[in-house]
Design goal:
Number of strands: 8
Strand order of the largest sheet: 1-2-4-3
Order of helices and strands: HEEHEEHHEEHEEH
Radius of gyration: 15 Å
Distance between the termini: 32 Å
Number of helices: 6
Helix content: 25-40%
Shape: globular
Length: 180
């Protein structure tokens, strides 16, 4: 069973778990906080919030229940364009659920993305890096986070032969990487 902090960071929320039931979201956008609250309400989670901190009275839900609720609530056709001045402008409700964490954490690290798709279980997941000069660093960061087979063509990075659920593990690993 994942902790609340893991559930959030694996799907791109800027969250830090403190203790067993408190999660700080100090660097999160208000729009993403509202999306989080809507998710918690949909899942009938008992919690309180104090601006950017969530205190959970409920045990964490299963990751499968979390993902199903996220997919029902998100409007994900393709990644939208963001305000590149602030990585917090990434609107999680507009991203495919399995790749949202990777997109968010790459942007947090200064590697701007312009498109993403989790493959929907039918194709290889992929992201597009905006600046071609960032491709070598993106490849290094993704490989270090556990992505083993990457196919790079132009600005597009595809995750070859990967079960999309592994994208959540990569996102969790990216969540602890600090920008130099």
């Amino acid at each position: 069973m994942k902790t609340w902090g893991q559930l959030l960071t694996r799907n791109g929320f800027l969250a830090e778990q403190h203790g067993s039931s408190e999660v700080f979201c100090m660097h999160e956008s208000l729009e993403n906080m509202q999306f989080l609250i809507d998710l918690l309400e949909k899942l009938e989670v008992v919690y309180t919030t104090d601006c950017m901190t969530v205190m959970f009275q409920s045990e964490p839900v299963s990751e499968q229940d979390w993902i199903e609720a996220y997919e029902r609530m998100a409007c994900t056709r393709t990644e939208e364009l963001f305000n590149w001045e602030d990585y917090r402008g990434v609107r999680l409700c507009k991203l495919d659920v399995y790749i949202s964490g990777i997109v968010r954490h790459l942007n947090r690290l200064g590697l701007q993305t312009g498109m993403s798709c989790d493959g929907h279980g039918r194709r290889n997941p992929a992201i597009r890096i905006v600046n071609e000069s960032d491709i070598p660093l993106a490849k290094k960061v993704l490989t270090g986070a556990g992505a083993s087979r990457l196919d790079i063509r132009a600005k597009r990075i595809s995750f070859r032969t990967i079960d999309r659920t592994h994208l959540l593990d990569i996102a969790e690993n990216l969540s602890i990487v600090k920008q130099e």
